[in-house]
Amino acid sequence: MIAGDQEAFRELMEKYQTYIFQVVYSVLRHQKDAEDVTQEVFIRIYHALPQYKNQGFKTWMSRVAVNKAIDLKRKKQREKEDLTEIEKVEHISHGNVTEMESIQRERVHLVKTRLNEMPENYRDVMFAYYIQDKTYREIAKDQGIEVKSVESKLYRAKKWIRKNWKEEEFK
Question: Does domain 1-94 sit in CATH 1.20.140.10?
Fold first, then answer.
């Protein structure tokens, strides 16, 4: 396959998507995370194809998938540890609960407001996936589109967010 040949890459994705998902799921044991990481694996593979040395393609893809899954697992573990530390500090300081609730409400309001600024086709998929906690298949069924379209919309929505939102606005 020649790097940059999108039709050939689409065929590659169709052929190996279930396999890569299973590899990722075996590490993460969480469907939604596995779906996200599977999408990221194919993006990584697409960009890394020019460096591929034609040695054990399926093994190479598996290694990329396992590494991405492990990265996410480590990140979630760090986040969990950070939250535990925050909870300890809050418990020790007996922080003002109403203040924390107020901050949380402000953040939720900000995210909902910002979601409304997104293009509608991205907003619907983001809301269904992140707010309603639906799977790709559920979203596809609800919206009458293919699962691949859901994946594409989520990818484009995340790209749009990175371009248009600043992290500082959410602190």
Answer: no
Q: 10 Å Cβ neighbour count for 99?
A: 9
pLDDT digits (tens, 9 = 90+) for 29-70: 989 999 999 999 998 988 888 888 887 888 899 999 999 999
Residue range 96-171, CATH number:
1.10.10.10
Tokens of 57: 């393609």
Residues 6+ apart with CB under 8 A from 64: 41, 44, 45, 48
Among 71, 73, 65, 72, smallest CA distance to 19 is for: 65
Q: Domain map of the chain by residue range?
A: 1-94, 96-171
H or E stretch covering 80: helix 57-93
**The residue to which tokens 């992140």 are assigned:** 130
Q: Exposed, middle or buried: residue 39 (CB in 10 Å: 0-12, 13-18, 19+)?
A: buried
- Indicate the helix (H) or strand (E) that contains 152: helix 147-164
**Lowest-pLDDT range of 12-21, 55-64, 82-91, 125-134:** 82-91
Tell me the DSSP string of 101-145.
HHHHHHHHHHHHHHHHHS-HHHHHHHIIIIIS---HHHHHHHHT-
